[in-house]
Amino acid sequence: MTDGKRRRGLMAASALLGGVMVLSACSGGGGDAGSDGDGGKGASQAQVDEAAAKKTSEAQIKITPKGGSTNASINNSATVAVTKGTLTEVTMTTSDGTVVEGEIAADKKSWKPGVQLERATTYKLKVTAEDSEGRAAHENASFTTVSQDNSFIGNFTPDDGSTVGVGMPVSINFDKAIANKAEVQKGITVSSSSGQEVVCHWFNANRMDCRPEDYWQENSTVTLKLALDGVEGAEGVFGVQQKTVNFKIGRNQVSIVDAETKQMKVTQDGKTVRTIPISAGSPENKTWEGQMVVSEKFKETRMDGATVGFTDDDGKGEYDIKDVPHAMRLSNSGTFLHGNYWGAKSIFGSANTSHGCIGLSDTQGADDPNTPGAWFYDNSIVGDVVVVKNTGDKTVAPDNGLNGWNMDWAQWKAGSAV
């Protein structure tokens, strides 16, 4: 080889070796590169990753329901829980920014709203928690509660905490037709401290009443439990109620109206406490017979014949009395037991003259406590029983008012869906 060729060969070899050294330096970052088990990251990158891991909070936040949920429960939604840490701040707002009240539990492990959620409403939750090292974790969620179109409620009577008569059934009127009656009925329980068996009966797709075989035992307590949250009442329509209602049964008052003798015998706990002369429906407008329950009381109310079908040739009501005193409703179709100041005092106990109601002697203004109408009103409560007999008319329909007692026990039980 000539000297020129030898020099060119040495220069090429030197350049090749130099390139290897450059590549090695770029990929290694030091003499110990790739030899510390860090996957080739190098000591400095591993240290950065370790430091970042140390800064991440261990607190784990869970919000129910999941973000983006629709048809969420108005009872069991918006709950927050944390593990491996404690809650430091929870903010809940509606979509328009209204703040929803709530409280972090004493152990700082959970949070829930302090008010009932509304249907068809979007809520937003912003949550912060800290772990034992004081490192913060954050979680956000948004959900929408079930809409009114996709939910149902049951409007019930009597009210929580009320005292009612022995004839008062639990009556529930649903705001949407119920197709899955058995599932809905399973979510409703009615029990009595007396131990009486209670059975529920469906009159139609929107109404279910519950009662024992005989009148409630006086001075007992009845409990209604509604566990309907999430129960599918019809396709795509879910219950939203989750509550317990208690009401008390008062003294046993049953009044017997005899249209033939034109007397009403008022009994309490089986003993007659007063006999009152009455005037029932005339032979042309007979009063329903049967067991009727006082469903409403009005010290004064208007009674217009046109609203119940009593009209003259001009279509006007045969009567329109704007201040009927001491009125107590006995049926949805317009049967009342009420005071009467416009009739002659002589009719009470001697003649049936009304359009179907039961009248007691009274004064205009409902301000005389000594009249028979006032006495009976003052000594009656919603749920008391009025039994009407000897009118010559048919028995009132069981679903006309709160009058399911006119159905025998076998028929009543046959109307249960479970």
UniProtKB/TrEMBL annotation:
Tell me which CDD domains the record gives. LDT_IgD_like_2, YkuD_like
According to the entry, every stretch annotated as the L,D-TPase catalytic domain falls at 253-389
A Pfam family in this protein? Answer: YkuD
| Residues forming coiled coils | none
**Keywords, sorted A to Z:** Acyltransferase, Cell shape, Cell wall biogenesis/degradation, Peptidoglycan synthesis, Signal, Transferase
* The UniProt record lists the keyword Cell wall biogenesis/degradation: yes
- The protein's superkingdom reads Bacteria
Catalytic positions? H338 (proton donor/acceptor), C357 (nucleophile)
Q: Where is the signal peptide?
A: 1-25
**Which pathway is recorded for this entry?**
Cell wall biogenesis; peptidoglycan biosynthesis
What protein am I looking at?
Answer: L,D-TPase catalytic domain-containing protein
User: What is the source species?
Assistant: Streptomyces prasinus
Q: What is the lineage of its organism?
A: Bacteria, Bacillati, Actinomycetota, Actinomycetes, Kitasatosporales
